[in-house]
Structure formats: C-alpha cells, structure tokens
Amino acid sequence: MPVKSGLKWSDVTPRSVWMNRRALMIGAGSALVAGPALARIDAAPSRYSTDETPNTLEEISSYNNFYEFGFDKGDPARNAGGLTIDPWSVTVDGLVDRPGNYNLGDLIKDAPLEERIYRFRCVEAWSMVIPWIGFELSHILAKVGVQPGARYVAFETLLRPSEMPGQQRDNFPWPYVEGLRLDEAMHPLTIMATGLYGDELPRQNGAPMRLVVPWKYGFKSIKSIVRISLTAEQPPTTWNKLQPSEYGFYANVNPGVDHPRWSQASERRVGGGFLAPRIDTQMFNGYGEEVAHLYAGQDLTVDF
Ligand SMILES: Nc1nc2c(c(=O)[nH]1)N[C@H]1C(S)=C(S)[C@@H](COP(=O)(O)O)O[C@H]1N2
Ligand SMILES: [Mo]
Question: What DSSP state is assigned to residue 89?
C-alpha cells in the first residue's frame, strides 16, 4: 500500500507542536512565562500523573533496555544516535476499517498530547518515575477503526540491522514484538509516548513512538514501533517466546507472584543509590484502582 503523505513526522514532534503553540500565543498577545517554563512542552497535565518526583533526564536516558542497541544498560545511549527516525511510517493492518502504511505524522496529528508522569517498573526489579509526553493509544485505534472481531493489538519494532547493531547478531528473535488485549490497549492509562521532559523522545527511549503501559513490567512497553495489528488471536510476544516460564503474556506488576529467579515484592528506584532502602512494589504498580477490573475473574498466578 502507498505511504499516505502529508504532514512530515517532524511537523508534529513535541518540540514543533510546542513551538507552534508558542507562536500562536505570541500572535494572540499572551504574555510568555520566562525561565524554566519555556523548557516545558505546552501539553496538558494529566489527572493520571503521579506526584512523585521524576527521575532526571540523565537517568532516564542513560539506563535503558533496548536490545536492538546492545544488552548493557549503557549501550542504547551509546549506540542509538544513528537511528533514522524521520521519515517514519507505521503499518496498521489486521481487523481495522482503514488499514495502511501511514506516515507517522498523519497517523498521530489529531491526538491530544499530554504530559503523563508515570511510575515505570522493570521486571528486573528496578523502577523510575518518568514524565512522558504522549497521547492515549485509543486515539490511534479510533482513527483506524477497530472491527468487531478484534480482541488483541500486536506491536512490532523496526527491523533495521544497518542501524541497530544488536540485530546483527542472530541470537534474538528479531523484530521485537509485543501485544495487549484490546481492553488493555483501549484503557486511558495506556499511552503512546513521543516525548520526554517536554522534548522529543531520545532514541534510546524508543523514538519516534513507543508504547507505555504503566501497570505492566517494562518489557511490555515496546519501542520504535513500525506496525500495529488488530487480531482475533493472542499475538506472540518476544519475552514469552524466549522464556515462557518466566515471562507471561500479561506481565502485570504483581508483588505476590515472583519471577522464578527473584522476588517481585520490592524494587530499587534508579538514582537513589545502592544504599537507599528498597521500595515495596505495589499491585499493578499502584494503578490497581484504575485497572484491577480488567482482570476480574482471572487467576493472576496462571495469567502472569
Ligand atoms: N524494541 C524494544 N522495546 C523494548 C525493549 C527492547 O529491548 N526492545 N526493552 C523493554 C524493556 S525490558 C524495558 S524495561 C523498557 C525500558 O524502557 P526505557 O529504556 O525507556 O526505560 O523497554 C522495553 N521495550
Ligand atoms: Mo525490563
């Protein structure tokens, strides 16, 4: 299918949106707030944000998991700089009314950007607090039209070994894939992030667009997405394919269900120093009031 052309991705990045709004404000004669406020994107704050203190941009963009750029936490920051993110297109297919190969700018131009400060809990028992800029995934799903038979959403990361050195080794089932049940994907807490700290998303954090599902372990939050497919059957996911006894499809943060090799009852907040006391991990990462109902009647020791 042809690429639907129009807006370039660079026309709708957080920075350009902010610059445009700023230009509008100047045109309307509004006073501009000087100082730090200028470094913040003019995205609406969200009632879903935590009031915990965010990690620094340095911490968030230098301690990463993005195996396409290497297995060490510092590898993505070192190796992701050469990733071409503009132009970027996203294929939407499967059980949708308007499938196609969309220019990213066209796909997301009407989605309202918000700042969402979320807790983020990795399966390896470390955590951060991250001020994302993004929009609810449901906006994309509404735009492409979900058909009645769809029950899951599958996601795929870019496959480009020339720019992703980790993909030059064949010891990993590239491309990285993930999936959500449709009700999880439609939940207002589930966002697509395109920015961080009021600016564009660093490549090591999954530019130009990555999923963020704050009540699930970090590996569900797939980066640098190039395909979104609506399916009737539960899609395969990378970590579940690699080690099904350790990584389930749901991967909800759950202090009561340990990973076979370590406890999930507590976590280390990145940046606190190794001497800082560990924090108790909360059920659904603290988002239970919003999401527990999605799993009513399921045994979460089986559906882990
Ligand atoms: N494509 C892709 N997405 C990925 C990963 C990856 O290796 N490749 N790692 C996952 C894991 S294990 C975690 S913890 C988060 C880390 O996100 P962050 O680096 O922005 O904190 O990204 C997830 N998304
Ligand atoms: Mo992770």
Answer: E
